[in-house]
Amino acid sequence: MAHGESTTNSTTTTGTTTKTISPAKLYQSSFPLYHWYMVAAVVALFALHHFGSMLAHRQRRLAAIKARSLVQASEKDDFAVKPTPSPSRGIFAAPLAIKAALRKTLIWREFTVGLWSSSSSEMFWSVGYTVAMLVFGFIYLPTGSDATPKSQASMYANRCGRLAFAQLPLIVGLASKNNVISFVTGISYEKLNFLHRSSARACLILSWAHSIGRSVPISLGTKNSLQHVHMQMGIVALAAFTLLTLLSFKPFLRRMAYEAFLLSHILLALLFIVGAYMHWQAFGMWVWPSLFLWGLDRFVRLGKTIFLNKLWLSFSSKTGTEERTAVVESLHGGALRVTLPRSMRWTPGQHAYLVCPTVSRFPFEAHPFTIASIPSSDKKINSDVTFLIGAEASDGFTGRLSRMAKSHGGRFEVPAYLDGPYGTIASIDSYSSVVLVAGGTGVTYTLPLALQLMRLAQAGTSAVSTLTFVWVVRNVEHIAWISSTLLQLRHDCPSSLVLDIKIFVTQALVNDLPHSPTIESSNDHETSSNEEITSDEGRSSPDSSELNEKMAVTERNEEKLRAELDHTGGRPDFSALLGPIIKDAGGGAVAVNVCGPASLSSSVRGALNSRDGPYKIKDVWNGGSSVTLHTESFGW
Questions:
Q1: In Å, what is the CA distance from 467 to each residue of 392, 500, 586?
Q2: Of the given ranges (167-171, 309-313, 593-597, 632-636), which has the lowest mean pLDDT?
Q3: Are residues 254 and 177 in the same domain?
Q4: Which of these, 82, 529, 550, 577, is most buried using a 10 Å CB contact count?
Q5: What is the DSSP letter of 479?
């Protein structure tokens, strides 16, 4: 992308040869390094924050567990002095108040234009990063006595070209499922996707600035005319990258046909990288690391797939196929439950990629789904990796999977491979109160978090004293997806944890539903024999008559279970819901985790960010609870 650097009289002698070097050229080549210095500084800052957060999390959890043990000991001794927690106030609460202000201003504040929405922090970074690259591209240019408008124009264009090349490793690295930045910062790769988009936009703007600067009559000479292959490849690269960017906007291919978008994204990206390299091979120093990162990510993913699915056993006829198949079941409301027994360990909230060659249009087509179960406590046995997939009105992969399930009587086995787990999930077991909010199949994220917190509470290693589980569904039938698991949660709840389950049905008439929105934890409930999401499923595929009889029994069991789960009609008022929880936390830390449609996340974010809402900076200053909000949304 860079051509025809002008020179001055500076020289460097090597052996018997003397090479003329332009100070301006040396000045030009330093800007890509400045860009990487800036990126390294930002990554280091987030890495330090991640390290400090882990230490604070550990200290807060241990302190809470110790305080609880002291309270329990004082209850047994009438003469013991009962410990009374004293939350930080005033100047001692300043760090928490500042953090709350930053969250409300930069992270939770949302801007929406049509189908596009972004938080203040994402917008600030995207605009700031692009401006920084343009400043690097058009900042002061040293001139000599031989400087001409033609040489200056070409040097500005060349500098933009250098900076565009320097973006490539960052763009590819941030798009990788396995990347170093996620590891050191604790930010999951999908959360880093907005950085990937920001660097890609900056690369596109710099590429166009380079192209325009080199195309003006005073700058485009005979050496760089369009008759040369390297110039033609530059145009191909720019056209491919421009088309790739346009197709990445949600209103276009990305929203309408994600599978086609993903394939076109990969092909156009490779065309851009190869075209850019052939355009100016002198900057291969930026291209080869990009290809290396892409290849390394694919190599790691392939290794995970081979290991998790024990593909080497597929060559032996004496071994079973359990580790290379999945059991697919139809559920009420157009959902599917997919179960894969695998020797995999994962953190609740993580996701994995499902590959079903006989269902997909392409043999290695992989689809991400959040794992709705938790790993077995016994590491020596396989764990059921369970996906709960909403397939209603779907024409893609999930739609084809749903139609196959129905054609097999509601349950069948299919060859399937797993790649994962992925996602960096922050631990929430150090908070005093935890609120889990889900919409529809977003419960696949919050349910395993609740199961894990329950397991830790039973072991006495969790600081959480109050767990509020909120689930918003469109139809009352959807409750049956996890009804037995919710009842099991209530049954297993220890005395050290207060469990409050609130279910809202949005498309039901309020008069047709019970008006008690909560399920208080109790130990007098007997668990139903109905299948639950964490249970081990049978692997056989019974005939049609057996399936019909089993589904009829299951439906009666599900209706019985639904009757035991109180629910209310309408949508939740999150200001009214979160207010008492934050107040009752008594200065303890509160975690709010949300997964569902973008509108659900916006509602929770808006309630916490509202001036008249339940969470105010002045309350934190006066010793009130600090709130951490984490959101996951549908779509990629």
A1: 30, 6, 15
A2: 632-636
A3: yes
A4: 577
A5: G
